Amino acid sequence: MTSATAITHSSTGRPRRPRGGWLVPAGLILLSLIPVIGGAFRLTELSGGAAITPDNARFFAAPVPIIAHIVGATLYCLLGAFQFVPALRGRRSWHRIAGLVLIPTGLIAALSGLWMAVFVAPAPGAGGALLVVLRLAFGWAMVACILLGIVAIRRRDFSGHGAWMTRAYALGVAAGTQAIVFAIWVIGGGPTDELTTSVMMGTAWVINVAVAELVIHRRSRRTGAARSSGRLTVA
Q1: CA distance 73 to 112
Q2: CB-based contact 26:78 (threshold 8 Å)
């Protein structure tokens, strides 16, 4: 995923590995648990022979892409959080092996989500045409970010690779942010019609994109400061 500093060498030539930094990944895992738990419930329902009701009939009509989305998104969100641990990111073997899992699972999650946006009818009151447009726009944006990340790493553009993969991950974990934003809206007494649901969902995507850009900007500044102070960054 991200490709920030792996090993830095000071002017004395002694390698310095990044420190732990588990606070951010722990927060991302907690954020991911919201859709992961919901996905686990849906997966159990589909595989356990649950009774078909008006609320879940649309999922039983096409279970394969639903299951692919749940499994792909779960692996992508949970494993991707560990790519933000500096101590792990500094290990080339970990970063590459994790990337071999994250790239396909991210694409599976995004593409199956796009399929669902078009072919699976939303629950009553859960958003209309506007939400479909938003899901398609941000879903294709996630696919594009992953593909651009692949292009960047093939060109050995490590900072570009990290930036695009950070953007993709931010879009991938937006379901957790959407649940929080929507819960705050409902607790505050806001209406829950199709328009406001779509606006709340879109707001969560925008929040995640904004946070990703802030992370990328700060990482770029740290890298520039390290280079100007005479330290060499090794991806």
Answers
A1: 10
A2: no
**CA 113 to chain centroid:** 13
Q: What is the DSSP letter of 168?
A: H
**Contact (CB, 8 A) for 66 and 59:** yes
Look at 18-27, 55-64, 141-150, 214-223 and tell me which has the smallest mean pLDDT.
18-27
pLDDT above 70 coverage of the chain, percent: 84
pLDDT confidence bin for 234, thresholds 50/70/90:
very low
What's the mean pLDDT when you consider all of the chain? Answer: 85
Nearest 5°: phi and psi at 81?
A: -60, -35
Q: What is the mean pLDDT of residues 55-69?
A: 89
39 vs 75: CA distance, rounded Å: 12
Residue 6 CB burial class (10 angstroms; 0-12, 13-18, ≥19): middle
Question: Do residues 94 and 103 touch, judged by C-beta distance below 8 A?
Answer: no
Cβ-in-10-Å burial (0-12, 13-18, 19+) of 109 comes to buried
pLDDT tens per residue, range 10-26? 444 444 444 557 888 99
Q: Is 10 helix (H, G, I), strand (E, B) or coil?
A: coil
Query: Which two tokens mark 161?
Result: 């690779």
Q: Which of 114, 123, 103 lies closest to 42, judged by CA?
A: 123
Domain locations in the chain as residue ranges: 10-234
